[in-house]
Design a protein that fits this description.
The protein is α/β, with parallel strands linked by helices and about 1200 residues long. It is about 50% helix and about 15% strand.
């Protein structure tokens, strides 16, 4: 069925011979439009454009891969219609090698193709973020050391300026790193830095100063808001009876207006313009009723309003009015300091380049800067000109398409323009096509610049079919994702709050979403869930180490609010599961877990929501991208590596001994510590050398540890890091140990991922085990981390818990927006250094007389500008969050005293302004403020506020306000607490436990054994072989191949593997279960032999097949009559194991254990593994209550099954 394109979509698809910018709103089908445009360009046999002459840039690797796949599929369908079209066939063949990639991939390719023009090696490698941070840290240390030796006076001045009250050079280091990071997103960064310093070397001129206009505008906006507040207070007082207060408030309103007009009068000299001090405030006597009392509700509100604007106005007078002399003094200090810092930053850039050159590596920002160097230069007049290479490429590439253009930075933008045909540094060429939505620009923290998109869009003409200009715009506003209620709600919210001042774009009719999706009729009103009964007991305040002024976060989100919202969301989802209907592929079905998404502003709170959902019996997935190095299993493994490298480190050694690997108890560890005052390792040696070592309770565990430790020390001297870690897993059964935990799969996946990190380190470094340990320690100390392994696939039926940033580009039928009461993070706007692309850098300065830090003129203005930009980004984040919903939105609101105070304040602001305007939006301190403002002025929101002066808007958006209570939650969760009488039997059991006396005869008995340990105890020799220097160590060892074979048998889909072994292996690689190296090492012939075996023929007929069956059982329950049984009889000793596979037949269980040992006969395997399978069999019989009728070894070495029992 042919796609029915809208007229605007067709304009975007068919526009040619001009620069085109497409503003594509959420859910408007922009990806489909991009693919169709590319398809039509490649299919055009009259104006032929080959696929190798395209540049298509996306901002993620996944998006690039998806683009290639969709384009290839579209070409395949077209070829089916035109099988003789050889041109299309050739284009499809070129798609895999076409320049469809991320900007960084494109830049790296460009560098490789032109490496002869740069001072780098052709074999450079790409540095990851973690390694690059370590390089920058090392370079900074080198630069500081050099400057303290060569320029001590400069360093002392800079250190004194930036580090008042701080120890060391930490704040100076942060300042230098902040400047370095920022300018790396700018083309010709050193020129920008020099220009920023030079700007302060000129005397202040209000007519040409880059900050003056912004400064005046900011102050005028403030004064305008005070005038409106005074006017509203005047209305309240007039209603209460007027009097003298009415006259005073009217005068103050006029005073604010006069101050605004004076300040904006550019014909006056600067000092006269800012002379707006009114002196002493008059005492305001408010009207009273006949009995002498105040009209409390009206007068109190007027008092509060007046107190608020008086406090803010006084702050302007004392802190924000700068005379011309003040400004020149501030400029002189800023100029001197910035020039000094520039020397450090430039030296840092050079040192980083040197270290990267030694390591033959490049980072992502290096790729962009080197691409700029290849494509353009500055002439003697400072104009940016194309290089010959850029001219050649601009003629070669016929089409340049940029997706997510709103997230581009300035360096990326100049690269695009230099590549485009007839493009310049100031405008796009006529073959460039950019797509984006500035309302979804949410990566300011990555130095994305949404103003680039805004400026291009504002300078473009609306596209028409007969357009002949050089810069056209197409607006795609029809939303094919969301229901009518979601679309109306989004439009209602942002038409109220988004403007050029707050959001950086006016949400006019041209920006509003248009309904494009069809849903059957249903009540899908946006639901505000107000949560009562929140614990409002005070929490301990956070202590800040900074001496700088910081924002007051006393009204920020509390732990009680977070837990209450998490609980409310879980209960609401529970009430909807299986009942609410979802419109899916033109059919209605009951909703499932995967239909829900909880969106949060920040990471770090997600686990609380996952726990709340788990308590309600709902599976959820919260993606945690940090915490890898500090996870328990990785910490233990790293500690073991540390001990292998140097056993004289007590804390890592004790950590390993008390871990699930060796399970020493606290009492045993204390006993070991008392052996001597030496290192713990020497204490272990002393115990094991003692003739009376049996007297030590941990002696047997220590013997096991020492045997494994000696083996690992030998392996560390002769094996790679990756192989050493594999040997640790095999020797300690650590993977099996962690698998019995509730999050065992996550722990196991993390441990497997460590193999990849170790392998990557060895490929890029020659530091060995010691270097790897230092590498991990440096990462941790510098606040870095590795990404944790993912164990849940998108196809799993779970509720998704995501940050708003992570949700971009995704969609869900039901979206819960939670945590909106969290205050905006404005801490950066209080920093001593403020930096802005358009206006430069400004610093707080210390007053020489009072020794007090004050906001200098440039710092004060830049702080206000950066605050405005930060709040605008928060608004765009809210837009992204609300537009993820397909069918319905839910917003949780903690209705505590804090929220009630905010409601009262918002009502006052709205009433003062006569509705929601820029002043109301800009005064918000959280997303919740914006949402409440919309709700308070909506016809359906009147019941949550009693302020009759708040104007109510007309709106076609449907909103429902509900109250959440614990009593209703208990009914839904069916967990109403019932107070029961004490159970006498349970009380007796507890008392018996408390009276328990420890039986010391158990001290010599291990608390837990694994079946693998028992089997290995009979074959535990270490065989040392002469090194084979001709061996190919890039290949896996036999043991590693065996592990890969077992992993394949554990996770593969047997039914599909039977006919497509390699396809199944590829799927396991995609899921991160197998590495590519392990996949390639699989013995496919031997796997195929298993699937042809009689044993497998029996297995696939079974209705019940279990793989990797974990168990933990008391040894005494097995009724063993051998030495093991006698030792553990009447004890609580546990036996742990994992059975590879068993399947059920009518008369019992058939047990299978896979073996990859290289042997010549069956009997060797029988002798080696009989006891292991015997223990498996009796354990499974006890656990499942069914007879194990047969037990087999399947030998991949012999390609056949071997019956054991």
């Amino acid at each position: 069925m042919a796609v029915k394109w809208t007229d605007k979509q067709l304009d975007a698809i068919n526009a040619r011979n001009t620069a085109v910018i497409v503003s594509a709103a959420a859910g408007s089908g922009k990806t489909a439009v991009l693919v169709e445009r590319l398809l039509r360009i490649l299919s055009d046999t009259e104006n032929k454009v080959s696929a190798d002459r395209l540049v298509v840039v996306t901002f993620t690797n996944d998006a690039a891969a998806q683009m290639k796949q969709r384009l290839s599929e579209a070409l395949s369908k077209q070829i089916e219609l035109e099988p003789d079209n050889m041109w299309l066939c050739r284009q499809q063949a070129l798609i895999p090698s076409a320049k469809i990639s991320t900007i960084h991939s494109f830049c790296f390719d460009l560098i490789r193709e032109n490496v002869q023009s740069l001072d780098i090696s052709s074999g450079f490698r790409i540095l990851d973020d973690t390694e690059e941070k370590l390089i920058v840290s090392k370079a900074l240390s080198n630069v500081f050391e050099k400057f303290y030796a060569d320029a001590p006076e400069l360093m002392n001045e800079l250190s004194d300026f930036t580090c008042q009250g701080a120890r060391g050079d930490i704040q100076l280091e942060e300042t230098v790193l902040g400047i370095h990071r920022f300018i790396n997103s700018i083309p010709f960064p050193e020129d920008w830095l020099e220009a920023a310093a030079n700007e302060y070397s000129k005397p202040f001129d209000p007519h040409t100063d880059v900050l003056a206009a912004e400064y005046v505008k900011l102050l005028c906006d403030e004064l305008e808001s005070y005038a409106l507040s005074a006017d509203y207070a005047l209305e309240l007082v007039s209603e209460a009876g007027g009097g003298k207060a009415e006259e005073i408030l009217n005068n103050e309103r006029e005073m604010f207006i006069q101050a605004r007009d004076t300040l904006s009068n550019s014909s006056l000299c600067w000092n006269d313009r800012i002379n707006i001090d009114i002196g002493k405030w008059e005492t305001c006597r408010y009207p009273k009723t006949e009995d002498g009392s105040y009209e409390r509700s009206l007068v109190d509100r007027a008092k509060d309003i007046r107190a608020d604007y008086k406090e803010k106005f006084n702050k302007i007078i004392s802190e924000k009015l700068f005379t011309e002399e003040n400004i020149n003094d501030d400029y002189a200090v800023n100029c001197r300091i910035l020039k000094g810092l520039s020397q450090l930053v430039k030296a840092l850039m050079a040192e980083i380049s040197t270290i990267k050159s030694e390591k033959n590596g490049l980072g992502f920002s290096d790729a962009e800067q080197l691409a700029v160097k290849l494509l353009c230069y500055k002439d003697e007049n400072g104009e940016i000109r194309r290089t010959p290479l850029a001219k050649e490429l601009s003629e070669y590439y016929k089409v340049i398409m940029i997706d997510e253009f709103q997230d581009a930075n300035n360096t990326q933008n100049i690269i695009f323009r230099m590549l485009s045909h007839n493009g310049t540094a100031d405008k796009n060429g006529d073959n460039i096509f950019v797509v984006g939505d500035v309302k979804q620009s949410i990566y300011r923290f990555r130095l994305a610049n949404p103003k680039i998109f805004i400026n291009v869009l504002n300078s473009a003409d609306e596209y028409t079919s007969d357009y002949s200009g050089d810069n056209a715009a197409v607006l795609l506003n029809r939303n094919f994702r969301s229901s009518n209620d979601v679309v109306n709600f989004v439009n209602d919210v942002f038409s109220c709050i988004m403007s050029e001042k707050t959001g950086e774009i006016d949400y006019t009719d041209s920006e509003k979403l248009e309904l494009g999706a069809e849903y059957p009729p249903a009540d899908r009103a946006a639901e505000f869930i107000f949560i009562d009964e929140i614990d409002e007991s005070p929490e301990p305040p956070e202590v800040s180490e900074s001496s700088d002024e910081q924002p007051d976060n006393s009204d920020d989100e509390t732990a009680a609010e977070i837990n209450a919202e998490a609980h409310a969301a879980a209960v609401k989802i529970k009430s909807m599961l299986g009942k609410a209907m979802v419109y899916d592929h033109s059919e209605l079905r009951p909703c499932e877990n995967r239909d829900f998404c909880i969106l949060l502003r920040d990471r770090g709170r997600g686990q609380l929501y996952a726990d709340a959902l788990a308590a309600a019996g709902i599976r959820a997935y919260c993606e945690e991208t940090t915490g890898y190095l500090h996870s328990r299993e990785i910490s233990v493994l790293v500690n073991l590596l540390t001990v292998i490298d140097n056993p004289m480190q007590d804390i890592p050694l004790v950590s390993v001994l008390m871990s699930p690997m060796f399970m020493l108890t606290a009492e045993e560890t204390a006993e070991l510590r008392l052996v001597s005052d030496e290192h713990i390792y020497k204490c272990i040696l002393a115990v094991l050398d003692d003739e009376n070592k049996a007297a030590y309770s941990a002696a047997k565990k220590l013997e096991v540890f020492m045997k494994i430790y000696k083996k690992l020390r030998i392996c560390a001297a002769s094996q790679s890091l990756e192989r050493l870690i594999r040997t640790i897993y095999d020797s300690t059964d650590f993977l099996a140990s962690v698998q019995v935990y509730a999050d065992g799969e996550q722990k196991k996946a993390n441990l497997r991922l460590l193999l990849e990190y170790a392998k990557s380190y060895e490929q890029n470094s020659a530091g060995g085990l010691s270097g790897f340990i230092r590498y991990l320690r440096d990462i941790s100390e510098n606040g870095g981390d590795f990404v944790r392994a993912s164990v849940i696939s998108p196809a799993d039926n779970v509720v998704s818990i995501k940050t708003i940033h992570k949700s971009k580009g995704l969609e869900y039928p039901f979206v819960f927006l939670c945590g909106t009461s969290k205050n905006f993070n404005l801490r950066d706007t209080y920093d001593r250094m403020q930096i802005n692309l358009d206006y430069g850098i400004g610093f707080k300065i210390q007053d020489r007389k009072t020794l007090r830090l004050y906001n200098s003129y440039p710092q004060s203005v830049l702080s206000s500008i950066n605050r405005r930009d930060t709040v605008s980004e928060e608004m765009r984040l809210l837009y992204v969050a609300l537009t993820r919903a397909k069918e319905q939105l839910f917003i949780t609101v903690p209705y505590d005293s804090k929220t009630q105070k905010r409601i009262a304040s918002i009502c006052t602001d709205i009433a003062s302004a006569g509705g929601i305007n820029d002043n109301v939006s800009s005064r918000a301190v959280s997303m919740q403020d914006w949402l409440l403002a919309v709700l308070l002025t909506h016809p359906d929101g009147q019941n949550i506020q009693s302020d009759l002066s708040v104007p109510i808007r007309s709106s076609n958006a449907k909103i429902r306000v509900t109250k959440f209570s614990d009593s209703e939650a208990e009914k839904i969760l069916d967990t109403a607490a019932v107070k029961a009488a004490p159970d006498s039997q349970k009380v007796k059991e507890l008392l018996d436990i408390f009276d328990f006396k420890y039986d010391t005869k158990l001290a010599d008995t291990a608390a837990k054994l694994t079946i693998t340990e028992i089997a290995k105890s009979e074959n535990d020799e270490i065989f040392l072989r002469r090194p084979d220097f001709s061996a190919d160590y890039s290949k896996l060892t036999p043991a590693e191949i065996g592990t890969a074979m077992h992993t394949f048998m554990q996770y593969s889909d047997y039914e599909k593997a039977e006919s497509d072994l390699k396809g199944q292996a590829d799927i396991l690689v995609e899921k991160g279960i197998l590495s590519a190296e392990e996949r390639d090492a699989l013995q496919y012939g031997k796997l195929a032999a298993f699937f042809r075996s009689p044993l497998y023929s029996r297995m696939k007929k079974s209705a019940e097949i279990r793989r990797e069956q974990k168990f933990l059982i008391e040894i005494s329950a097995l009724s063993l009559d051998d030495e093991l049984g006698m030792e553990y009889n009447n004890t609580n000793g546990m036996l742990q194991g994992i059975a590879d596979c068993f399947f059920a037949e009518e008369d019992g269980i058939v047990l299978i254990d896979y073996k990859t040992d290289r042997v010549n006969n069956e009997q060797t395997l029988i002798d080696r593994y009989y006891r292991q399978l015997y223990l498996y069999s009796i354990a499974l019989e006890k656990i499942f209550g069914r007879k194990v009728k047969e037990a087999y070894l399947y030998s991949f070495g012999l390609d056949r099954e071997i019956k054991i029992l």
